[in-house]
Amino acid sequence: MKHTIQQAALAVAISIALSPSCFAEEAQRNTLDTVQVTANRIEKPVAETLASVTVITREDIELAQAPDLINLLSRQAGVDIARNGGPGQASTLFLRGTNSSHSLVLVDGVRVNAATQGVIDFAHIPLAQIDRIEIVRGPRAALWGSDAIGGVVQIFTRDASKGFFEARLGGHRLAGATAGLGIARDGASIGLSVGGERLEGFSATNDAAFGHDPDADGYRNRNFALRGEARLGSQSLFITGLVTDADVDFDAGTGVPGEGQTAALNRVFGLGLRGPVSDRWTHALTLGRSSEDLDTPAYFSRFGSTRDSLDWVNSLALHDRQSLGFGVNWSRETGYSDEGFQGFEKSRRNAAAFVTWQGGFGAHTFDASLRRDENSQFGGASTGNFAWGWRAADSLRLRASWGQGFRAPNFNELYYPGFDLGGGLVLFAGNENLNPERSRSVEVGMDWQMSDSQSLGLSAYRTRINDLIAFAGPLLDAINIRRAAIDGVELDYTLTKGALAIRANATWQDARDNDTGERLLRRANRKLHASADYSFANGASAGLDVSVHSPRPDFGGALLPGYSRVDLRASAPLAQGWTVDARVENVGDADYELVQGYNTPGRTGVISLRWQAR
Question: Reduced to 3 states, what is the DSSP secondary structure of residue 14?
């Protein structure tokens, strides 16, 4: 591990050393001016936000040339991932050391965490359909409700009204393409985009996995996105949609008839009206629907969920750097499970109201939020959040925050029928009497604009979670039994000097079961990611990414070894909006696991061609 870290550090040092001493004027890539909406539920520049926020733009996505969404997310501070094999296999994330079900995920403002499992599989959301990603680290339950304990990830789909095209070929017989086309006229626009990807793949498992089969486990994804907007007087009518239909091959195990394959259908739609009510008052009214259906014939297993929602969010500008936000939410979740000859079909409703205030007084800024949720299944939950910032100097801001969070039990934890052992004994049974998980977090940090070309961000946090739900006890049924203690530090650094851009982030965290003292599974104590990109005068660019992770515990007392990985990439403009990209992933052919018994891709090459209408 020490040798691989030294190699990774050397690669970053070489890229910095290649920087000329006399670049032209400084490039203005200051992301602090970027506007985000997730942290406060209203538009606000990152520079004025007291939460820890990362914004990934379409330009960043194209520059990074990440193979998929989960890989791109893994490069960010405070994010760990788990994936059961290669591209297309089940993929989840852990935000600030919390569980995968402790991160709220939104697509165009619509919640997409499945009601049955409590998580979303990031493997099926194609990067080519994404315009922007906002990651808010830290609790946001006082604004968004359940699940936002570790933070919020919001994905905004791409506007295809101007037209675009992408095609890619790569290792493991990868072939894919995405195209968008639309029209914009007289204050109205509509864009449609379709995409598909096929990958023959490699064996998802190795000898350490149950049911290992050395055959290739492929993946197929078909996707469709819609985005439109039309002016209605002072208001705007908008519609969004994303549909993904995927087939995932896996090793079903000895004695299971047929090839293991899961069909996964995910849909999310939004329809709404937004605009000014007065000079100081703006609002957004959104109807949303998200659904997930999974079918695994080899195991006679079908389950899924649907969520219908209504959100009304308002922003009122007061005076002298004061603003007030308020809103209401209603949602209805239904879930079903058909496991052979047993299963369930259940539903529940949730109603909520929130209020948030932001104010500035001299060098000091404040955020305060309160929310009340009433749920037909578990009752009520009240959450709050408070943050303070101090502009100690023109280039330095200090900040501190406190927040609460909660997570409602998912339908599998509540209603899963389990396995009947006879004699009234049931294994892995759900429990309708579960309480919500609850958390408290504190954070201190600083944002330092070191110069026109350098910035540094630092955050330290502490999170305590009570009533964690686990399948435990003699029959491994669902109970509130565990507590978690998570402490961590995050560091972000950016240098933009002429044609050279360097970005680096590091995370140190200690995530433990507070009752046993054992580390929480699949979280690294230390991780580092650094990238360096050089832009040439003709518009071409070249770059590298270095990722380093310390060892992580897994089930059964296993310890996954630490690893480092280096990726190279290059891009060159052609003509009339065309660009060719090429990348080599895992240049050193590092052999590592994100989940015990599951393989990861070795050295792989990909070439792509893209076009964007001017």
Answer: helix
Pairing of strands 151-157, 103-107: parallel
pLDDT, one tens digit per residue, over 287-327 is 999 999 999 988 888 999 999 999 999 999 998 889 999 99
What is the H or E stretch that residue 330 is in? strand 322-339
Helix/strand/coil for 412:
helix
For 194-222, the pLDDT digits (tens) are 999 999 989 888 887 777 778 888 999 99
Q: Residue 180 corresponds to which amino acid?
A: G
Cα–Cα distance between 267 and 311 in angstroms, integer? 18
**Alpha-carbon torsion (93, 99, 100, 105), positive or negative:** negative
577 with 614: CB under 8 angstroms?
yes
3-state secondary structure 437-464: EEEEEEEEEEEECCCCCEEEEEEEEEEE
**pTM for this prediction:** 0.93
Measured distance CA(476)–CA(320) in Å, rounded: 57
Tell me how far apart the alpha carbons of residues 585 and 569 are, in angstroms, rounded to a whole number: 8
Alpha carbon distance 436, 49 (integer Å)? 29
Q: How does DSSP classify residue 455?
A: E
CB 183 within 8 A of CB 161: yes
Is 110 within 8 Å of 120 (Cβ atoms)?
Answer: no
- Identify residue 70 by its one-letter amino acid code: I
Q: Can you tell me the distance from the alpha carbon of 126 to that of 129, in angstroms, rounded to the nearest whole number? A: 6
Instruction: Give 124's DSSP letter.
Output: G
List Cα–Cα distances, 357 to 152, 316, 368, 406, in angstroms. 19, 10, 5, 21
Could you tell me the end-to-end alpha-carbon distance of the chain, in angstroms, rounded to an integer?
47
Nearest to 414, CA basis, from 102, 150, 115:
115
Q: What are phi and psi of 86, to 5 degrees?
A: -90, -160
Token readout for 15 is 């890229």
State how far the Cα of 158 lies from the Cα of 182, in Å rounded to an integer.
12
Structure tokens at 602: 């070795």
Which residue segments constitute the domains of the chain, with CATH numbers given? Answer: 2-612 (2.40.170.20)
